[in-house]
Fold these 3 entries.
Entry 1:
Amino acid sequence: MPFPINRMRRLRRTETIRRMVREIEVTLDDLIYPLFVAHGLDVKLQVPSMPGVFQYSIDTLVKEAREVKELGIPAVLLFGIPADKDERGSEAYASDGIVQRAVHAIKEAVPDLIVITDVCLCEYTSHGHCGIIKGKEVANDETLELIARTAVSHACAGADMVAPSDMMDGRVLSIREALDESDFSDVPIMSYAAKFASAFYGPFRDAAGCAPQFGDRSSYQMDPPNRREALKEISLDIEEGADIVMVKPALSYLDIISDARGTFDVPIAAYNVSGEYCMVKAAAAKNYIDERRVTTEILTSIKRAGADLIITYSAKEFALWQAGV
């Protein structure tokens, strides 16, 4: 019915009514908190370009994991910073590597916290690329065996889920087969299925020390203008055995999240990446914006687009806001 019978403002009149008819609400169960672990003892090193984000040694990481769990955040996504790097990224799949040791320590101290591990070689290679280099190119098929070995080593350490981020063709299938052959058929894969070659990753590369030493990652990460290709990438990962598929970054790719939600009947994750986080932090530091409101609006937009899970550096702050702190 037309105005004045139909008045849309009736259901916006009070905060209680607005809450009652709210269509989308972000909860702590939607969130995954990224963490960075490095060698050493009693290390909690502020990442210069990421306010509120730190590199932890295993002992301080365990303390952080306990706090994350106490806040009600159900899961963390773990990134490792090795002591040494080489051309093949050997520490990525070493049984005593930094991530493997960190996973074991967290699961021993906080067994109910879900530990997801990033599976890639870029943090561990001397050249900073996500696979084996031949000439000036990343060799796809030769890299798959190392990616699969990395995933299995994380599962052996106790990881609840593995998350391949390398964007090599066929890596989900290689990981699934390797996990199954190693008696880890129950370990799910959350694939970075549509990961774009984005300019929003800069602060992360500062945190993880993984900037490529030559060229860029455009030959294996997706070209940002491509929408249909993203659905093909996601479809292939699902066919290869991915249990959850991820779109990364989130904010500039809300259309991809929405497309994925409307096309595929699997859980969709989205990564609210470092550049997105840091823009909010920088603007809030200048009092240009209300950080709490803007962050909540961003997370809501990601969920409204169709994401079931949101990886975000704001998870702890959001949890504190929800608790009224």
Note: Residues 48 and 246 are 27 Å apart (CA to CA).
Entry 2:
Amino acid sequence: MRSIWAGAISFGLVVIPVKLYAATEQRDITFRQVHRADGARIQFRRVCTLDGEEVPYADIAKGYELPTGDMVVLTDEDLAELPLVTAHRIEVLHFAPSAQVEPILAAKSYYLEPEPAGTRAYVLFRDALEKSGKVAVAKVALRQREALAALRVREGVITLETLLWPDEVRKPDFAFLDEDIEVRSQELKMAASLIDTMTEDFEPDQFHDSYREALEAVVQAKVEGNDVVRPAGFEAPEPRKQPADLAEILRASVAALKDQRGQSDAPAKSRAKPRPAARAKTATRAKPAKSETDSEESKPPKTTSRARKASA
């Protein structure tokens, strides 16, 4: 895994340096939007609605549209001045019972790995948090946006769950909530009995994404049946054979370097002439007199008057 953030857990007077890693990933099959007729990819361009010109990404800013239709343009300088005291710190605010942090608030989960200097403090905080049965309610800023978060322990690692703000959770407003619906006690007992009968431990490994597997099978069947489209002008890259082990990788690298050097040296060798320069240098050493036929490289270095006095 690759860390996406580095900072510290601020727990009272304790500071624990940590790295942040994404704890989850999407395993969906990704598709490209293509032209149905020839399979060519569809391009999306950033075009200004005023002049119809394509706008480079460097010239794009954030804009907040007012109800009047006017636009407030925010620059990088405006955003840099916003107060983000938790930019590199996970600030623990307080602790709360785990059941009070409702699942609907959870946004995204991350793993926290300790830096070498903070491993002991990390383990101490982890063990104390796990023993308490509570979660740490905290604040953290990720990608220039401050979020509410919860720290809990999973498989020996402190996890950080970013939470939605309370006003980001919609209130359930359905008509049946205002209706007086009667449920008989016998029906409630039968429903409870059915729940007890179907109760078992939750083991995530026994579940799988059957839709994704079926979709992969459809794609594979089309590949095996050669039901593919080659868009015009597209050149597939040549497949490279991966060596089996590190020794073969190193051997292939050495051979490639030798080939490159051989190709670069060959033209130079073919243009090479007899070595008059070497003879000129030898003659220069034997006889310091200058010659008009000597090359610039064979001329002895100039000696200044100070150097001559020093040698004298």
Note: The radius of gyration is 35 Å.
Entry 3:
Amino acid sequence: MVSRAEFEGRTVVVTGAGGRLGSAIVTLMVERGARVVGCDQSSEALVSPHIASRHVFNLLDQASIAAAIAAILDKDGVPDILINNAGWTRAETLPALTAAKIEHELDLNLTGVMTFADPLVKAMAKNGAGSIVFISSVNAIAHFGNPAYAAAKAGINAYAKSIAVELGRSGLRANVVCPGSIRTAAWDHRLAKNPDILAKLQRLYPLGRIVDAAEVAEAVAFLASERASGITGAVVPVDAGLTAGFLPFIDDILGA
């Protein structure tokens, strides 16, 4: 049984803390004793009473990232755990891509994430301990659309491995969680076009459903914890079996 004091005395920085997945991560970490430093792009997103310290910045704005890093280190100190959760996408297929959209999605989901994480990771390494968890995507493992986002998330997977390899002897672990579809605000525009889309989506998943935010948060908490002390550089799908294989092929071709 997981201890309710698992993260007692630990400071945990969570980006995208106001979103559905971010909120689930924040709640779980606090329930297990952590002091959570919440980061998001607006103060309105950080109203949760579970958040002990709040920092607002934009991953597309280098100056605001630098200011946030300085404020975190000054106010909250070097984190024990860093959870890089913030991300966003809209360019869903290759025809939808433009130079501006490519730049926007790579800057937000890769460059901004690395720019924010790098100084904190190095500070953690200087302290001689720390756990970093990145929220990537199944899109980084196989192609499910959103090509620029997928490329950025694949970069995040590679970045996590670089931390794991180069800073492991400095006491750092870095791992990646790749969620499948979660019912978040990211699905609102699709549901507006097609209210039946979630039923169609579930057919692709071997468990017959998509995962929920709490299930992803559990994987994040495990990798962040000492229970995963021997795990670093891992890329862990939490996807109800989506990346294990293509179930409709079994149903429609082999079972026909």
Note: Residues 189 and 218 are 27 Å apart (CA to CA).
